[in-house]
Structures are given as C-alpha cells and as structure tokens.
Amino acid sequence: MPVTSLRAKPGGDEGNDPRLLLLDQRDNVLVAISRIRAGETIAIAGTSVTLTADLPIGHKLARQAVSVGEKIVKYGAPIGTATAPIAIGEPVHVHNLRSDYTPTYHLEDVRKVQEARP
Amino acid sequence: MSMRGFLRSDGRKGIRNTVVVAYLVECAHHVAREIALPFRDRDVHVIGFPGCYPNSYAETMMERLCTHPNVGAVLLVSLGCESFNKYRLEQTVRASGRAAKTIVIQATGGTRKSIAEGRAFVGAERAALDAMPTVPMAAGELVVGTVCGGSDGTSGITGNPAAGRAFDFLVTAGAACIFEETGELIGCEHIMAARAVTPALGRELEASVAKAARYYATLGYGSFAAGNAEGGLTTIEEKSMGAYAKSGASPISGLIKPGDIPPRGGLYLLDVVPDGDVRWGFPNINDNAEIAELIACGSHVILFVTGRGSVVGSAISPVVKICANPETYRRMEDDMDVDAGRILTGDGGLDEVGAEIRDLVLALGEGNRTKSEELGHQEFILTYKSFEPIGPACLPAA
Predict the structure, then answer these.
(1) What is the ipTM of this complex?
(2) Is the pTM of this model over 0.80?
(3) Which residues of A touch B351 (CB under 8 A)?
(4) How many CB atoms lie within 10 A of CB B319?
(5) How many folded domains does chain B comprise?
(6) Quick check: B183 contacting A, CB < 8 Å?
(7) Residues of A in contact with B190 (CB under 8 A)
(8) Segment B189-226, tens digit of pLDDT
(9) I need a labelling partner for A40 at 20 to 30 A (CA). Which of A28, A48, B84, B125 fits?
C-alpha cells in the first residue's frame, strides 16, 4: 500500500473525534491520545457514541462492531481475538480481548519432544 | 539542494568524512582522547575496544566501523601488549583506500610522544579530507538504522509509527533500512514472519526472536508485566507492536547480524542477541551498544525514538532524535530534532511527521547537522559478544 495514501492523523477523514488516533487504515480500534471522560458523546466514523467510563490516554475503543472470535487489528496487525461481542465505541481491553500468542520457543520444544518419540 | 557524498573505493558513499581515532585497549584510551581533543569541532571521533583479550566479534566490528563510508581516515592507537590484531586492521583500512597509521605507545616512547605523533597525523589527514571533492548521492544509496531508548507510553503511538512511516518512504526510494532489538519483538514474531519476502526467511525471523526470548528468560527478564495493562496495553502482541512499529509496513528483505552490510535496498532485521550460551551478560548494555552495531552494518544515519528523553549521539554517524512525548519535547527541545509528540496535541499526523523525518535524513546529506552533532555528542561503546554467521535463508536473492 503506498504510504502517501494513508491518513493516519487524529480524527482522520472519517469523522472521528480528534482525540482518537487511527494508527493504520486496516485497524478496527482507535487509540485515545488524551483522556476522554465518561458521559461525553463523541463521533466515531460518523456515529455518535456516549462513553460509559473514562478512556485514558493509550487505551483503545472499537472503530466498528466486532463479533466474538474476530481478530482485533492495531498497527495493521492482529493483536488478539475478541472474547465478547464489541459494539462501536466500546472500550477494548482485557475484558473482551485475549492474546493469540504462543511463544516460538515453546513450539520448538514441542517439536523436539515429538521428534524424540520412537 | 541535493545530497552529496564522499565516494569510497568499494562504491559506497559517505555523508560525513570523519577521521577516526581508535584505541585498541582501554590502556590506550586516554592517549586517543588527547590526540582528538584539539580537533573536537572538526569531525575527529574516538572509538575503540577496551578488552585486552582477542574476540572475533570485536575485531569484525572495529573493521566495519573503520571502513564505514562516513570515515575518511583512521589512526589506530595501541598500547603494544594487548591481543588485538592491529596489523590486520591497519591493512584492511589501507586496502579500502583510506589513510591509516598505527601508533604503538610502548614503541613510540610513552604518552607525550604518542600524542604529538597522533596529532600530526590527524591534522594532516583532516586537511587532506577537507579538500576531498564530493559526488552526487541518491536517497537509494543510504543505509538508515532505527533504535528506541528511554521509551514511555507515547513511543508506541507517535514516535515509533512515525519512524516507521519514514522507513516506508526511504525503502520506497531504494534505501536500506535496519530495525533491531529482537528482545522487544517477543509476541509479534509470527506477525513479522508473515512480512518476510520468503517463507524460509520468515522462519529465520521467528528463530531470532525465539533465541532472544530464551536469552532474556535465562537472564531472568520477562516480557509482559501487569503494569503494561494500566497503560492500555492488552496483549504481548500489542506491546511488541509498539516497538515493531518502527519497522513500518515494507516487506522484510533479510535478517543480518552485527557487521553484515545489507546487499541492496529494502528492510532488514538486525539480530543483536548473541548466539550460543548466555555468556557476557546483557545482549546490549545500553542504547549506544545497539547504535554501534547498526553503524557497523553501514548505517549512515540513526533514527532514535525517545519518550522520556535521551540526549545521546554517536561517533561516525549522525543520530536524529525523535521525541515521542510532547512534554519531554518542551523540556528538552535543544536535544530533539523531531517533535513527534505533536501527533498527541493534534498538530500533525503520522504521515506528516514521517515525511519530516525523511526530509531531515536527506538534509543530513546536504550539509545539515543533527542537534546531537551540534552539541558534540560522540558516544561510543563496544564490548564482548559472540555470533555465528547468518544462514543462507537470511538474505534471499532479489
């Protein structure tokens, strides 16, 4: 993808609150670049959403609706799998996202054990 | 304006024409520093290896640094009884078309005589290099490395992705770009492997991170702490992606080790974690150890992303400091080249800051200097490490 076509700036071109950062066009989450208070109504992709809890700096919310089992994408890369349905504007964190990571050296160990079997 | 470079006999071009004064054991460090002192504002840099015992990693590093395209002439300073193979290093530098001289302090007659003899060589070579003509240089002839240090919560959302954008621009222009610190990539090796130009290279990338994970685990250091979640990070993949974002979005063309020079443009991972058993402690004891390795791989320029505020520069290659945190930038503006934290205050986007970083890199080839260069920063460190050569899958043919 040519880099010059990316529009990763606060707010972007898609009608997001300017306090939300889109790191990559492929992402389904936005990152808060300053604290957004509970009760504030903010725009996400043109949709109005009222926050039920504070969103601190560096925390994420959904840019679009996400189903259980779907990948959460940040920096254009999958960072884990949704464990609950997530509505647009809902915070994304340990309560609804889990890691998919298996350490490579663990896989190596498993392979060695398998190879050692008679 | 366009870039100008100093053409070397191997075809590479330098954006600086530095005289290097290299001590070959700590016992010669003071004499080397005294030789360079009168030339402190004239691109004369001190590097060296402190150990008395031989080490092939250190000898390779010194050889690559002394024949780096930014280096025009080399003075080696030896005490006399250390194990470093000074004659081979001097021959290698001479064979590269550069002026070289070795001063052996014990043979020259001590500190005072060695300093006088060294200053005469440096003065003459400085004058000769100052008269050297330059040639046009293209962005595609650059090698650029990136490192992060003094990171905080802003590094992963401003400075690192902005440096990644700059890498994308530079790779598109044909440059070779190098990212590193496999220990900070634990959790995103599978994501990274998917970007490799061949599946076999992808497996090598994964293996390099697995090696780092084992190495740090042996040292007693884990990767994902509970405190990370308070900052909004949910998974290990996400945490590592913050550091990995420095690499940008280009395909990964190769895996190299310290002293390996990228054969062509593209994006490369530098494996900085030693091979074999854990022996000499931390893979890299500080940021400058990583910077020295990136420079030994031919980096003309280093992009250094910091959140808390590092002030370092380096011998041989300029260091561009990208400040991720807007508060740190306001406090330490004299040391920072780029205010990437303005992304947080809504005063710029990642593409815009990335383009600014690229333009700053190119301007360094047009005579501009970085803040750390202007302030006289020339940090350098080299210690014991050991590596096996890279495997055949690490550099797939273009």
Answers:
(1) 0.83
(2) yes
(3) 3-4, 6-9
(4) 28
(5) 2
(6) no
(7) 101, 104
(8) 988 999 999 999 999 999 999 999 889 888 887 666 66
(9) A28
Query: How many contacts, defined by CB atoms under 8 Å, are there between A and B?
Result: 116
Q: Do residue B144 and residue B219 come from a single domain? A: yes
CA distance A64 to chain B (A): 18
d(CA A72, CA A75): 10
In DSSP terms, A71 is beta-bridged to: A81
On whether both B39 and B181 belong to a single domain, the answer is no
Q: Domain range spanning residue B65?
A: 4-135
Both B243 and B367 in one domain: the answer is yes
By C-alpha distance, the chain A residue nearest B205 is: A104
| Same-domain check for residues B322 and B388 | yes
Chain segment B139-156, per-residue pLDDT in tens: 999 999 999 888 787 888
Q: Which of A74, A97, A98 shows the shortest C-beta gap to B241?
A: A74
- Phi and psi of B55, rounded to 5°? -160, 125
Residue B345 has pLDDT above 50, yes or no: yes
Q: What does each C-alpha distance from B140 to B176, B256, B299, B314 come to in angstroms?
A: 7, 19, 13, 23
Of the three residues B113, B135, B157, the one that is the final residue of a domain is B135
**Residues B199, B114: one domain?**
no
Taking an 8 Å cut-off on Cβ atoms, the answer to whether A23 and B161 are in contact is yes
Q: Please determine, for residue B63, whether its predicted confidence score (pLDDT) is greater than 90.
A: yes
Residue type, B154: T
Q: What is the fold of A3-116?
A: 2.30.130
Taking CB atoms and an 8 Å cutoff, what residues of chain B touch A77? 188, 191, 237, 241
